[in-house]
């Protein structure tokens, strides 16, 4: 092998090695870029616009409700709580027992609640007391009413056995207690049940919960038509 | 005969169906109208798409909301269940059975003056704390009993009616004690909030002047 030939082969080997090394280096550079890209993707993930927007709209809605100086209702599915608030402060709360069995029911309810214009707030459109018992006996009230000269009916409190709160569009919160009550109006109960059957083809979502009697009494009495209800849809 | 019976049954069923459908449409329309009527007050703008601006706006909104929430324990009066609570955002520190306004009204037949005995709803603050309070009987207290309104102011004072402590929250309304503890839990008052003596003492000792009171 001639001297020139060896030099020529060495030159090729050197060129190949250099190319290989450079290409490896290039790979390294590319990897860093990729890493940078992937970092920026991670940072984009951290800033989730949709989640921030939802949080912002929840806060903005609540600020509006708090300024109204009236009691408003919060269906907080994130905290699994039903909350009554006044001026931004919690005045009543109830932990919901939502198990895996009724998670579909819950999702249907949330989707239906937010369906229109992606609203987070809806007013209560109706409530209906199916059955209840009276808190104080008539004899006690008649004595008290004579002492304080007050109308007995004003002092009477219904403890609900079952009632419903409606938001229109087939949205219903059904509350049951362990109280053994009497139907308030059999005819109206039948009409409401019949309406439910008719509503079914148009879609409906009912959330059913069991509550202690005292909490149910407060919620039933507060939830009048027009009461604003804010939903936190995150589960 | 059978045919007539079938026709009648079908007619009744049809009428029921029509009535139900009308009821369904009417209630849904009524819900829609209520929703539309409140649409402006329910709408909120979306967060700006620019990340920096969005983060700033979100932060400001969070601050505004947290400013509304009481940072210290506050009093809640549930006029529906006749309960008084001392609570913070997450937990109840004290729960007491109470008596709130009866909602009744009294009209003085001579002058036509009218009183409605409701506990006021809304947000208030503890404006005064009075140990051993004396009740200064208002006009209606005499008129209800068929008595004349005294000219001498000292005749209005009653040292026994309000219990050991009173927490005032404006316009002559107080959270105070009562000699009628057996009536706690029933809406029997003329607007004040009555609490049992032991609960009242605990509440009095734990609420400084300025404590927010939320009545619903």
Please identify the structural class of chain B as seen in this structure.
alpha+beta
Quickly count the helices of chain B: 5
- What is the terminal-to-terminal distance of chain A? 79 Å
The residue-averaged pLDDT of chain A reads 80
What percent of the residues of chain B sit in helical stretches (DSSP H or I)? Answer: 25-40%
Order of adjacent strands in the largest pleated sheet of chain B:
6-13-1-2-3-12-11-10-7
Please give the domain count of chain B: 2
State the CATH superfamily name of the domain at 71-232 in chain A.
L,D-transpeptidase catalytic domain-like
The CATH topology of the domain at 71-232 in chain A turns out to be: L,D-transpeptidase catalytic domain-like
Q: Kindly provide the name of the CATH class of the largest domain in chain B.
A: Mainly Beta
CATH architecture level-2 label of the domain at 71-232 in chain A: Beta Barrel
Roughly what fraction of the amino acids of chain B lie in strands? 15-25%
Notes on the structure:
The complex is a heterodimer of chains A (235) and B (216). By secondary structure, chain A is an alpha+beta fold. Chain A has a domain at 71-232: Beta Barrel (L,D-transpeptidase catalytic domain-like). Helix content of chain A is 49%, strand content 25%. Chain A has helices at residues 3-46, 49-67, 103-114, 138-148, 152-155, 186-199, 213-222, and strands at residues 72-76, 81-86, 89-95, 121-123, 126-134, 158-166, 171-176, 182-183, 205-210, 228-232. Chain A is elongated. Chain B has two domains: 2-67, no CATH class; 72-215, Beta Barrel (L,D-transpeptidase catalytic domain-like). In chain B, the strands form three sheets. In chain B, strands 6-13-1-2-3-12-11-10-7 form a nine-stranded mixed sheet, with helices on one face. In chain B, strands 4-5 form a two-stranded antiparallel sheet. In chain B, a hairpin with a 4-residue loop joins strand 2 and strand 3. The longest helix of chain B is centred in the first third of the chain and has 36 residues, at 2-37. Chain B is flat, with a radius of gyration of 27 Å. The termini of chain B are far apart. Chains A and B meet through helix 2, strand 3, strand 4, helix 4 and helix 6 of A and helix 1, helix 3 and strand 1 of B.
